[in-house]
């Protein structure tokens, strides 16, 4: 039962927007089903000589606007329903920023912490070989997700290249720089969050230079978002947190210093001296101008939504608010920039990486940043217009905008045969 819920929840959000735009019944059907669902069960030789069978999935939701695109995650809770929901969201994420991709996602049901480096490599190479029948640089381009990284992308790229007999840079994104990665990819999601945070502040008539910010999560997305919001918007980051708890400093943190501290301290901010200790729940309830939840899903629930005092929420994480909490937040007139718009900077720079790989021509960091900024700013502006046109919240508007694009592409292409 629980396994059905994520995809069903995603469909609920989709149908809310489909109602607003009066989407035809047949188009709803076409867009509600994933195009392909591949499940593979494959053997891996463990270090002790035993053979273990693992299960993985690759789902392609929609490819009307371009090849499927989306990460592969390794997690003990991976299941087909979750992968379907994540692939579905990738379709809308690519569409909302107008990049020519459809939606895909993959996963292997495994806790990678239980594997040695050698086992992880053998599992990765075998899984990628198994899904090779539906992926390709013009068909479906995977990327990192939860518990997968640049090293695993390097193994994927090498495996595919060995199987076809020549190097194929465009087969995955999120690769190391040395083998076709893009400059600016690590900071991309945080940079996108920073762009939409500034646009949201302007939209609400707030001066970014005097805005106070709280950021939950100090990993890839949270720390880059905090650093760039501080450096480029001139706002004050007064609270940060991670799995070890939070810190508050009304004078603002020196984010570079905290990042350096975290990197020397097993990846956590606990013990950083220039701040008062607070809990994650206290951080979410701070009276700040902008709150950026950038940790995990379901951080804001019915239990704590009532306490949120921020004027704007920019969702760096995927699904940081439950649908019930979302209703409470909307009733409090808090402006929410939804996840699949706010965190689309990552897939946008993945797209730049793919383009660079196909052309074997690599861009300067300034070109990456300029192109990303333009795309995020235009996407925010387009969704804001849709929001005003239909008088709806920004999440529903983001769906309307992206559904319109995918439905239009589907109509133009027609139904084969
Ligand atoms: P990460 O693993 O680098 O960082 C996660 C951070 O959250 C860490 O600081 C961790 O300590 C903290 N955290 C974990 N559990 C917590 C808890 N219970 N309370 C408070 N903090 C907690 O991950 P990331 O790549 O930064 O991803 C964060 C979110 O953004 C995820 O939802 C991810 O799906 C989403 N996202 C990431 C990208 C990307 O490019 N990295 C792109 C789009 C969306």
Give a quick rundown of the structure.
It is built from 14 helices and 12 strands.
Structural overview:
The chain is built from 14 helices and twelve strands. The protein is an alpha/beta fold and 417 residues long. Among the domains are: 34-169, Rossmann fold (3-Layer(aba) Sandwich); 188-337, NAD(P)-binding Rossmann-like Domain (Rossmann fold), CATH 3.40.50.720. The strands form two sheets. It has a seven-stranded mixed beta sheet. The two termini are 37 Å apart. The model has no long low-confidence stretch (mean pLDDT 96). Bound molecules: nicotinamide-adenine-dinucleotide. Nicotinamide-adenine-dinucleotide is lined by residues 189, 216-222, 241-243, 280, 294-296, 316-318, 343, 346.
Topology:
Blueprint (H helix, E strand, L loop, with lengths): L1 H19 L4 H8 L3 E10 L5 E12 L5 E8 L4 H17 L5 E8 L7 H15 L8 E5 L5 H15 L23 H16 L8 E5 L3 H14 L2 E7 L2 E4 L6 H10 L11 E3 L1 H5 L5 E4 L18 E3 L8 H9 L3 E3 L1 H4 L2 H15 L5 H26 L3 H20 L4
Parallel strand pairs: 3-4, 3-5, 6-7, 6-10, 10-11, 11-12
Antiparallel strand pairs: 1-2, 2-4, 7-8, 8-9
Helix pairs in contact: 1-3, 1-14, 3-14, 4-5, 6-7, 6-12, 6-13, 12-13, 13-14
The protein binds nicotinamide-adenine-dinucleotide.
Nicotinamide-adenine-dinucleotide binds next to helix 7 and strand 7.
**Tell me about the biggest sheet?**
7 strands, mixed
Order the strands across the largest sheet as they lie in space: 9-8-7-6-10-11-12
State the CATH class of the domain at 188-337.
Alpha Beta
CATH fold assignment of the domain at 188-337:
Rossmann fold
Can you write the helix and strand succession as a string?
HHEEEHEHEHHEHEEHEHEEHEHHHH
**Would you report the number of β strands?**
12
């Amino acid at each position: 039962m629980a396994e059905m819920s994520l995809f069903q929840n995603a469909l609920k959000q989709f149908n809310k927007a489909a109602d607003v735009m009066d989407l035809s019944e047949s188009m709803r059907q076409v867009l509600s089903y994933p195009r392909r669902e591949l499940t593979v069960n494959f053997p891996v030789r463990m270090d002790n000589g035993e053979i273990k069978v693992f299960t993985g999935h690759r789902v392609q939701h929609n490819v009307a606007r371009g090849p499927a695109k989306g990460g592969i995650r390794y997690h003990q809770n991976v299941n087909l329903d979750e992968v379907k929901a994540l692939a579905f969201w990738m379709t809308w994420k690519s569409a909302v920023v107008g990049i020519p991709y459809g939606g895909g996602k993959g996963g292997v049901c495994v806790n990678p912490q239980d594997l040695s480096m050698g086992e992880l490599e053998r599992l990765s190479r075998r899984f990628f070989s198994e899904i090779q029948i539906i992926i390709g640089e013009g068909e479906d381009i995977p990327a990192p997700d939860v518990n997968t990284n640049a090293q695993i992308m390097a193994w994927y790229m090498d495996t595919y290249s060995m199987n076809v007999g020549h190097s194929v840079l465009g087969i995955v994104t999120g690769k190391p720089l040395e083998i076709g990665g893009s400059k600016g990819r690590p900071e991309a999601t945080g940079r996108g969050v920073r762009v939409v945070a500034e646009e949201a502040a302007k939209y609400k008539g707030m001066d970014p230079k005097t805005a106070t910010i709280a950021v939950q999560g100090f990993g890839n997305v949270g720390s880059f978002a905090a650093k760039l919001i501080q450096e480029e918007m001139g706002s004050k980051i007064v609270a940060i947190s991670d799995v070890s708890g939070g810190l508050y400093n009304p004078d603002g943190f020196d984010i570079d210093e905290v990042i350096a501290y975290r990197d020397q301290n097993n990846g956590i901010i606990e013990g950083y001296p220039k701040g008062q200790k607070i809990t994650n729940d206290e951080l979410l309830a701070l009276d700040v101008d902008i709150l950026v939840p950038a940790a995990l899903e379901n951080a804001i629930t019915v239990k704590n939504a009532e306490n949120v005092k921020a004027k704007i929420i920019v969702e760096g994480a995927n699904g940081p608010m439950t649908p019930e909490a979302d209703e409470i937040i909307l009733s409090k007139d808090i402006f929410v920039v939804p996840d699949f718009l706010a965190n689309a900077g990552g897939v946008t720079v993945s797209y730049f990486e793919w383009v660079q790989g196909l052309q074997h021509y690599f861009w300067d960091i300034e070109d990456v940043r300029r192109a990303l900024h333009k795309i995020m700013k235009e996407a925010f502006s387009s969704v804001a217009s849709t929001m005003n046109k239909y008088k709806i919240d920004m999440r529903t508007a983001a769906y309307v905008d992206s559904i319109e694009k995918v439905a239009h592409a589907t109509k133009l292409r027609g139904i084969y045969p």
